[in-house]
């Protein structure tokens, strides 16, 4: 019983691997056969299309048209057809009148000349007369040499006829045989007329119906080969282009240029041998695994017997090892926290230094701006007589200086540490101040934020400067998000809902990825590649709002934009705000 299990496992493994290997090999062979079908189809189409236009072109020659109308010597037409056929490499080129009789041919001076032969029974003649063009593969009834016939109708006054060319496609067959490629071409009835396998020549793929057989007899397509006596190559019709014999598989595809089919064949012997080899390897591997498992089981039992007396000591060692591992993890975590704290302190110091430097710069430029504004006022008052154009230019200059003074005023308020005490403020005021603060950045981006506020006051208990800092930071983040995306916008909306005042900052920028969204409020986390903006960070915004008993909610999606919602409780006392 113990020996039977490994053998059963080996047998099942071999069977499974054999099935998988054969399936994979057959699928791979099918894909390779599809490539062969594609290449063969293109080669056949190229060979056929090479002379497809020749009958129509030849039919335009005056010698051919005169011969068909009976106005010119037939010898001129014969000589012309002979020269053209030799030049383009055609097997034969001939002219047939409306009754199907050949009246001129390129082989006029040979023993197997077509002149005087009637080909009215050939489908290429009938199709050319009725439809203008025809094509057909057949064994020549005059020469006994197979070929592909292309024909075109020619009309001269009241007379009509057909110019036909015969192509020798055996060059394709010779190429397949030289390359040892199992390829065959069949006509629309499924009769193989070119094949790399000689034993497939002039055999139907499936059993011919009586109607198809009768049509082939009527057209004398394969006269003399005993087509009705040959056994079909397939016992069952192909399904989805797949065909299979006893020791081969094949793929069958259509050839639009001939209206027939191309067959690519692959012997199964090599595939079956490969699958058998994989099965043998799987069986040996299963036996090796079974032997290894058995050896390991025996070793485990021996080890268990040897360690039965030291189980308590081993448990103590394991417990102590776990304690040491926890101590190591705790130390590593402490070191990581220390490094993070150091980096945070360095970053905070940099930000504080930048704030002090900004405050100093603002202080330095405030007085020159005031002096410039006073100088322009004095210049305007001292003009005698007043010059309207100059007054206008001075007025514009003073407006720009006042705008710079408003910006420096906001920056002073922004840099000043606000008292932690809360006061009753109108939420519209810091909203508009924040907009003034970010207007220079908005002009660089080329988008002016659209701010929508209610007409009445929105009183809240908060700090005006810190609220202004939060809104300015959110506006700068929104402007950064839309800078690289054209046709974007930023909208700020102030509304009330119940006992809550809501500020929504929406942009249609690049958005935030799903994995980064939960971390955007972490201290010093940023998705920006550079340090642009005020540097307050969403973590500081969230902390400021917490002091005001407010909340910060963020929704974002990549390439759709971001919506940040601030909620602050509306003050209960309805009194004038400062």
Can you tell me the CATH class of the largest domain? Alpha Beta
CATH superfamily of the largest domain: Histidine kinase-like ATPase, C-terminal domain
- Quote the average pLDDT: 81
Number of helices: 13
Unreliable sequence segments = 531-535, 574-578
Compute the separation of the termini in Å. Answer: 96 Å
Task: Give the amount of beta strand, in percent.
Answer: 15-25%
Secondary structure class reads alpha+beta
**In the CATH scheme, what's the topology name of the largest domain?**
Heat Shock Protein 90
Domains, number: 3
Any guess at the CATH architecture of the largest domain? 2-Layer Sandwich
Radius of gyration: 47 Å
Looking at the structure, what is the overall shape? flat
Strand order of the largest sheet: 2-1-5-4-3
Coiled coil: 324-351
GO molecular function: ATP binding
Main location: membrane
Domain Histidine kinase: 360-572
Task: Provide an overview of this structure.
The N and C termini lie far apart (96 Å). Helix 3 (62-69) packs across helix 4. Strand 16 (551-557) and strand 17 (561-569) form a beta hairpin. It is built from 13 helices and 17 strands. The strands form 4 sheets. A 5-stranded antiparallel sheet has the order 2-1-5-4-3. It is flat and about 120 Å long. It has 578 residues and is an alpha+beta fold. It has 3 domains: 4-49 and 171-267, Beta-Lactamase, CATH 3.30.450.20; 54-167, Beta-Lactamase (2-Layer Sandwich); 419-569, Heat Shock Protein 90 (2-Layer Sandwich). It is 50% helix and 19% strand. It has helices at 4-49, 54-58, 62-69, 74-88, 123-131, 170-178, 210-219, 269-307, 311-381, 388-415, 428-445, 464-482, 537-547; strands at 92-97, 102-105, 133-139, 146-156, 159-167, 183-186, 192-195, 242-244, 248-255, 260-267, 423-426, 450-452, 459-462, 490-497, 500-507, 551-557, 561-569. Mean pLDDT is 81; it is low at 531-535 and 574-578.
């Amino acid at each position: 019983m113990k020996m039977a299990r490994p053998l059963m496992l080996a047998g099942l493994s071999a069977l499974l691997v054999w099935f998988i290997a054969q399936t994979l090999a057959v699928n791979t062979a099918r894909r390779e056969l599809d490539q062969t079908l594609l290449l063969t189809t293109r080669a056949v189409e190229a060979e056929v299309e090479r002379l497809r236009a020749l009958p129509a072109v030849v039919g335009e020659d005056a010698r051919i048209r005169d011969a068909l109308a009976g106005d010119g010597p037939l010898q001129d037409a014969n000589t012309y057809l002979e020269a053209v056929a030799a030049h383009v490499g055609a097997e034969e080129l001939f002219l047939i009148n409306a009754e199907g009789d050949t009246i001129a041919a390129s082989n006029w001076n040979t023993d197997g000349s077509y002149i005087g032969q009637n080909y009215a029974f050939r489908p290429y003649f009938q199709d050319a007369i009725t439809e203008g063009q025809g094509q057909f593969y057949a064994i020549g009834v005059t020469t006994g040499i197979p070929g592909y016939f292309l024909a075109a109708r020619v009309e001269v006054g009241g007379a009509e006829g057909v110019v036909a060319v015969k192509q020798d496609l055996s060059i394709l067959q010779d190429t397949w045989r030289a390359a040892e490629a199992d390829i065959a071409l069949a006509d629309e009835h499924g009769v193989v007329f070119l094949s790399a396998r000689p034993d497939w020549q002039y055999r139907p793929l499936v059993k011919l119906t009586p109607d198809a057989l009768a049509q082939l007899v009527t057209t004398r397509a394969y006269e003399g080969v005993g087509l009705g006596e040959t056994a079909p190559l397939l016992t069952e019709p192909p399904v989805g282009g797949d065909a299979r014999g006893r020791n081969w598989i094949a793929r069958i595809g259509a050839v639009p240029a001939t209206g027939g089919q191309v067959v690519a064949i692959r012997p199964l012997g090599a595939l079956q041998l490969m699958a058998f080899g994989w099965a043998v390897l799987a069986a040996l591997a299963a036996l090796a695994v079974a032997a290894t498992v058995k050896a390991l089981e025996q070793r485990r039992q021996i080890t268990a017997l040897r360690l039965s007396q030291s189980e308590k000591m081993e448990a103590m060692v394991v417990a102590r090892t776990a304690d040491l591992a926890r101590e190591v993890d705790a130390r590593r975590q402490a070191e990581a926290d220390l490094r993070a704290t150091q980096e945070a302190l360095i970053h905070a110091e940099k930000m504080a230094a930048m704030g002090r430097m900004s405050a100093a710069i603002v202080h330095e430029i405030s007085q020159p701006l005031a002096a410039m504004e006073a100088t322009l006022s004095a210049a305007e008052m001292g003009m005698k007589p007043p010059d309207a154009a100059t007054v206008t230019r001075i007025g514009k200059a003073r407006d720009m200086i006042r705008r710079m003074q408003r910006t420096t005023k906001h920056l002073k308020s922004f840099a000043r540490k606000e008292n932690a005490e809360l006061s009753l403020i109108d939420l519209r005021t810091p909203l508009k101040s924040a907009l003034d603060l970010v207007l220079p950045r908005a002009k660089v981006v080329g988008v002016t934020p659209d701010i929508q506020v209610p007409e009445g006051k929105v009183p809240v208990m908060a700090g005006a400067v810190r609220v202004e800092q939060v809104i300015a930071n959110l506006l700068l983040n929104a402007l950064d998000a839309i800078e690289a995306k054209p046709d974007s916008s930023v909208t700020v909306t102030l509304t009330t809902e119940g006992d809550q005042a809501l500020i929504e900052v929406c942009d249609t920028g690049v958005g935030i990825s799903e994995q980064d969204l939960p971390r955007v409020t972490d201290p010093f986390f940023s998705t920006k590649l550079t340090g642009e903006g005020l540097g307050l960070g969403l973590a500081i915004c969230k902390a400021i709002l917490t002091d005001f008993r407010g909340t910060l909610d963020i929704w974002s999606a990549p390439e759709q934009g971001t919506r940040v919602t601030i909620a602050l409780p509306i003050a209960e006392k309805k009194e004038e705000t400062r």
